Amino acid sequence: MMNTRPRSLLVLSYAFPPALAVGGRRIEAFCRYLPPLGWTPLVVTASSGPGRKRGWDVWHGTAVYRSGDLNPLAQWRGLRSRMGTSPPPADRPGHVSPAEVSNGRLRAVKRAILAGLTTPDDHMGWIPFAVSAGLRVARQYPVDAILVSSPPHSAQIAGLVLANLLRKPLVADFRDLWTMNEYASDLWPGTRAARLNACLERMVVREADGIIANTHTAEVMLRQAYPSATHKITTIPNGFDPVELEGILPRTFPKFTLTHAGSFYRDRNPRCFLEGLARWLERSGVEDLRSKIHVLFIGRHDPSVSHLAHRIGLEGIVELAPSVAPSNLYPILAGSDVLLAILGFRPTSRSIMPAKLYDYLAVGRPILALVPEGEVTSLLASHPLHRIVTCDDPSAVATALESLYAQRDLVRPGSGKAGLGVHAWPQFWRPHLARSLHEVLAGIIGSPGPVSPRLENRPPTTAREMGATYQRN
Question: What is the Cα–Cα distance from 298 to 434, expressed in whole angstroms?
Answer without folding.
Answer: 28
